Amino acid sequence: MSTFLRPDRDAVALAASGLLGGLLLWRLGLHTQGGHPFSAPWITLLPLTVMAAAELLRRNAPRTALTVGALALVADQFTRGSLATALMFTDVMYAAVLYGTPAAARRLPVATLLITVASTIGFLAWFRQPEALLIGLVIGLVSFVPALTGVSVRSHRTAADSARLAAAQTARLAEMDRRQAVTAERARMARELHDMVANHLSAVAIHSTAALSIDDRETSRGALKVIRENSVEGLAEMRRLIGLLREGGEDEAPAAAPTLAALDSLVGQTNVNGASGGLVCTLEDAREPGAEALPTPVELAAYRIVQESLTNALKHAAPGPVVVRLGRAGELLTVEVTSAFGSRAGPTAPGSGAGLVGMRERVALLGGIFGAGAEPGRDGTMIWRVRAELPVREREVRS
User: Fold this and answer.
1) Residue range 292-307, pLDDT digits in tens
2) Could you confirm whether domain 256-399 is CATH 3.30.870.10?
3) What single DSSP character describes residue 353?
4) Its pTM surpasses 0.85
């Protein structure tokens, strides 16, 4: 009920303008017709006032406004008539289509068209004069044309609302894509930083602990030498990563990613770093010589998996062999790293668990299979095995 009592500003302005305009026409004695049953001039003000009241309901209650307005327009035909009443009815009809229900918006143009045609035919049959066409034209201008205009405006508004909704949805999807891209890039940076630096820092931590805990000059010198080498290499890796993150020029060539060809150097470095812990690392490459080059993402992922596995062996493996195996089975590259599983004496480095998470993420991005865990070895001892199967076809690599 509150919607009937609180019309909007436009409705109030239209109602007031129509009422004042009608009063001015009435005061000047300007009427649309004459010779009707209720020919007293003041009676014309009654339909005018009712139509102005209907204007107040044009938006909040368009169906009620149209019903009241139609009755007022019919009543106006039995008086001298007011142009203001007819003009306000056109706005009420327009508002009924624009603000009414979708069903009303579909039916009113058809109904007013039928009324216009039927009225024109009826008046032609009654008066039998061509002037009867003018009556049908007036009826069409008062009813059908405003309804048709309301349909057009409503269609444009609906299209505009749909466009705004589509734009908002596009903006939301773009924001989601941006956040996902930022999250993926942060995860990639975290993996690269962990894989590049963890190996060197683990060696530094283990050998610095050995240097502090073992009171032997030669042992301390050897440990300090390893610490220095890993510190320099770790710093170089950090600088390379920072260089990748900085915004370079268009002509600046990107830094080369590590490949499986560098595994010999990685294994040799592990032997140096793990000598004090009794680790002996070997590389077994069972791939056929001259095989086709691997896609860069696959090559980088395989290298990082080996690197992180050797870092974990350096931190946690018991004394014994550490074996890196590479193989090619059809469209899959297999990477496997095994090491002795168990406790060991001497210094160790703490682990955060991020290494296994990073390896699993790398393999998942390529659509491969990853597994890691302890299992019995061939000689009955327990070993820790890391195994990854990576698709080698570029089309299978997922970004």
Assistant:
1) 778 888 888 898 899 8
2) no
3) S
4) no
